[in-house]
Design goal:
about 350 residues; mainly alpha; flat
C-alpha cells in the first residue's frame, strides 16, 4: 500500500525510470543488430564476423576468390545481385536486411567546372579586346582558344553533366550495354574527369592569351609545346582515370579482366597518335611550312592514312581481346598488332621525309 502511494506521489521519477529502461533496451538491441546506416562493405564484414567466418571461407561459399571478398569489404568492388542473394541465404537473413540502409548518396556535378567554363569564355573575350587594341590579335590563336574552350571544355562538361544527371552512359566511349556497371562509381569518375578537363582547359586558354603577346618565333614554339602538352594531358589523364576505376565501375570479374586486357591497344593508339602529332609539329616548325600550303595538304593526307592504320588496329584488337579471353582465358598481342606498329612507324617516317 505504501509502495503504491510512493509511486503515485512521484510520477516524474517513474517516467524517468521508464525512459532509462527503454534507452537501455534500445542500446542492447543496437548492440545485437548491425548498423543499417553502414556501407554495404562494412555490413558484409560485420555479418561475416558475427558468424565467425573468415574471408577465405566466405569466398569458398560464394565461389569467388578471397581477394574478391576483401575488395567487397574495402568497398573497392561490389558483389552482383545473385551473389548478394547467396550471401543473405548463407547468413540466414533476407536480402533486404543485408542491403538496407546501404544506398549511397546521389552523385551530382559540382559547380566548379561550369564556373571555369565561364571563366574560359571571359578570358577569350578579354584577349579579343586586348589583342585588337594592341595589334596582338591572331586568328590562329583565337581559333585554338575557341576549340579548347567550346569543343573540348564546354562540350565535355555538358556531356558529362547530362550523363551524371540522367544516369545514361550509352554515348560514352567504350560503354557496352551488355556489361553490368556500378552507376554511382561511373558518375564519380565522370565528375573527376570533368573537373580535370575544366582545370587544364582554363589554364591552357589563359596561357594562349598570354603567349600571344610574346611575338615572333618564341610564340610559335610556345604554342606548339602548349598544344602538345594539352593534347597529351587530355588523352592520357582521362585514360588513367578510367583505368584506375575499373575495379569499382565494373561489377563482374570477367568484365574487369577484359577491360584491363583491352587497355593495351587503347594506350598503343593514344601513344602513337601523340608521336605522330609531335612529328607534325616538328615538321611544320622546322620545315617552315605554312597553313593552306601544298606541303600542309600533303601532311593532311599522311594524317588520314595514319588514322586509318591505328583505328583499324584498335577495333580489331578490342574484338580479339574478348575472343581470346573467351577461348583461352588470356590475351597476348598477335601478328596484326605488330604489323600495325610497323605500319604506323612507316607512315610517320615517310611523312617526315
Amino acid at each position: 500500500m505504501n509502495q503504491q502511494k510512493e509511486r503515485n506521489s512521484n510520477p516524474g521519477k517513474n517516467i524517468e525510470q521508464q525512459n532509462n529502461m527503454h534507452s537501455a533496451l534500445e542500446h542492447s538491441r543496437n548492440q545485437q543488430q548491425p548498423d543499417t546506416r553502414q556501407s554495404l562493405g562494412k555490413k558484409i564484414r560485420q555479418f561475416r564476423e558475427q558468424h565467425g567466418v573468415t574471408q577465405g571461407e566466405l569466398a569458398e561459399e560464394m565461389s569467388v576468390t578471397r581477394q574478391a571478398v576483401s575488395n567487397w569489404e574495402r568497398e573497392k568492388t561490389l558483389p552482383d545481385v545473385y551473389t548478394l542473394q547467396q550471401m543473405a541465404a548463407y547468413f540466414g537473413i533476407t536480402l533486404d536486411e543485408l542491403v538496407e540502409g546501404t544506398k549511397e548518396p546521389e552523385i551530382t556535378m559540382p559547380k566548379m567546372p561550369g564556373r571555369l567554363a565561364a571563366a574560359t569564355g571571359l578570358v577569350s573575350v578579354c584577349y579579343l579586346l586586348a589583342g585588337g587594341m594592341t595589334g596582338h590579335l591572331y586568328v590562329e590563336t583565337m581559333i585554338t582558344m575557341i576549340i579548347i574552350g567550346i569543343f573540348c571544355q564546354l562540350f565535355l562538361h555538358l556531356y558529362f553533366s547530362n550523363s551524371v544527371k540522367t544516369g545514361n552512359f550509352s554515348a560514352l566511349a567504350g560503354y557496352d550495354s551488355k556489361v553490368e556497371y556500378n552507376q554511382n562509381e561511373v558518375k564519380k569518375v565522370l565528375v573527376q574527369m570533368d573537373q580535370h578537363v575544366a582545370c587544364i582547359s582554363f589554364g591552357s586558354v589563359l596561357l594562349y592569351a598570354v603567349g600571344a603577346f610574346l611575338g615572333g618565333e618564341q610564340a610559335d614554339i610556345f604554342y606548339g609545346a602548349l598544344t602538345f602538352a594539352y593534347c597529351g594531358d587530355l588523352i592520357f589523364a582521362l585514360l588513367l582515370y578510367n583505368y584506375r576505376s575499373l575495379n569499382r565501375t565494373l561489377v563482374k570479374e570477367q568484365d574487369r579482366k577484359a577491360a584491363k586486357a583491352g587497355y593495351l591497344s587503347i594506350v598503343w593508339t593514344a601513344a602513337w597518335s601523340m608521336i605522330f602529332l609531335g612529328a607534325i609539329f616538328a615538321k611544320m616548325e622546322f620545315g617552315s611550312i605554312e597553313n593552306n600550303s601544298p606541303q600542309a595538304a600533303g601532311i593532311l593526307g599522311w594524317m588520314f592514312l595514319f588514322l586509318l592504320v591505328v583505328i583499324a588496329e584498335l577495333f580489331y584488337e578490342q574484338h580479339r581481346v574478348k575472343k581470346k579471353l573467351a577461348e583461352t582465358g588470356a590475351y597476348r598481342p598477335g601478328a596484326a598488332f605488330w604489323l600495325s606498329t610497323a605500319a604506323a612507324l612507316a607512315v610517320t617516317v615517310l611523312m617526315l621525309f
